[in-house]
Amino acid sequence: MLIERIKQHFRDSASTKLAALEELATPIAAAVDTVFAALANGGKVLICGNGGSAADAQHFAAELVGRFEQERPALPAIALTTDSSILTAIGNDYSFAKIFARQVSGLGRPGDILIAISTSGNSENILTAIESAHEQDMLVIALTGKGGGRIKEVLFDTDLHLCAPSERTARIQEVHSLAIHCLCDGIDAMLLGDK
Ligand SMILES: O=C(CO)[C@@H](O)[C@H](O)[C@H](O)[C@H](O)COP(=O)(O)O
Ligand SMILES: [Zn+2]
Predict the structure, then answer these.
(1) Number of domains in the chain
(2) What local confidence, expressed as pLDDT, does residue 75 receive?
(3) Is 13 marked within a binding site?
(4) CATH code: domain of residue 147
(5) In a domain, 15, yes or no
(6) Do the domain assignments include residue 104?
(7) Is the ipTM of this complex over 0.85?
(8) Does the record bear Metal-binding in its keywords (predicted)?
(9) What residue ranges line ligand 1, CB within 6 angstroms?
(10) Which of the listed residues 56, 119, 177 should we mutate to test ligand 1's pocket, taking the one with most ligand atoms within 8 A of CB?
(11) Residues β-bridged to residue 47
């Protein structure tokens, strides 16, 4: 029984990713162009998410500041999920809804990119981070699922929305992880040529 459950997870994950291939290849390519242009103009990438998506934010930042598969210069990216003093100070003194928004206000500059990750599309602290990014004239790349939730409503036309075609958090996170690796690979390909 356990073996069958595990096999079903693999099947579900594979079929969700195949469905995502059709829907997300074009917006992921647009996201690569957007991030590359921002970096080429001296901008940086700020990334936020909760729970598993906080881990994804850190994973992505690590591959930009460190490296993905190829040797290249360090790229400027910050996961907004890591500084416990900042997170507790903002959470305690303001509210949990502001933990990312206030960091975006402090660190974000026009031309920077906010990568906002939320499987439900409804997390308040991600919605306020997007609002804050818009106030700083930053573009937003949202990674969501479940139809995009409230995030879909607050994005500008100039923003990008990568919505994983699933209602299930785990499957959405698996698509996000794949999308993040595609973004890393695309940025490397643009920087270094298609190796
Ligand atoms: O990783 C998981 C579930 O797979 C959880 O930690 C999950 O990320 C948390 O419940 C988050 O708080 C969900 O937030 P969101 O994706 O809806 O914005
Ligand atoms: Zn998880």
Answers:
(1) 1
(2) 98
(3) no
(4) 3.40.50.10490
(5) no
(6) yes
(7) yes
(8) yes
(9) 50-53, 118-120, 123, 126, 169-170, 173
(10) 119
(11) 79, 115
